[in-house]
Amino acid sequence: MREFKRTDRVADQLQQELAVLIQREVKDPRLGMVTVSGVDVSRDLGYAEVYITLLGDNDPERVQENLAVLKHAAGFLRSQIARRIKLRHVPELRFHYDESVVRGQELSSLIDQAVEADRVHHSDDLENRESSSGEGER
Q: What phi, psi does 88 have (nearest 5°)?
């Protein structure tokens, strides 16, 4: 059980360091505003699955380009992490696009649309009831 806690601590530290390194040290102009949304480290600390999100437009072509830039910079990032974190072995970095934020925004938008449609439908029902009850009194 203790091993999992260590991997969690290493993952949290990697996430913090990578967020700073990607923003400040990776100088590729193709790289957009990248956020490190999470890191999962394997039990043997051999691999780190790094999940990123992008600010702005998230078309598949742009996502793939950013992932390619990060994959290319993985060795540099790993060497920088080795200088900052005291680990016997720095995990190999594997970058993935985290779609959960985009999906969450889409679901939130759908919920807002449904609530608004329900509100409009409900107000129409009230107007119809009031107009039909007003006609009966005349």
A: -65, -40
Per DSSP, 43 falls in state T
H-helix or E-strand containing 117? helix 100-137
Residue type, 107: L
Q: What is the pLDDT of residues 44-102, one digit of tens each?
A: 999 999 999 988 777 889 999 999 999 999 999 999 999 998 888 899 999 999 888 77
Distance (Å, rounded) from C-alpha 19 to C-alpha 132?
Answer: 62
Give buried/exposed letters for 36-57 (b at 16+ CB in 10 A, else e).
bbebbbeeebeebbbbbbbeee
Q: Show Cβ contacts of residue 50 under 8 Å, excluding neighbours closer than 6 positions.
A: 14, 15, 18, 36, 38, 39, 70, 93, 94, 95, 96
Q: How far is CA 50 from CA 33, 37, 70, 106, 130, in A?
A: 15, 8, 10, 23, 58
Instruction: Using a cut of 0.85, tell me whether the model's pTM lies above it.
Output: no
Rounded to whole angstroms, what are the CA distances from 57 to 18, 60, 89, 100, 101?
Answer: 22, 9, 36, 15, 13
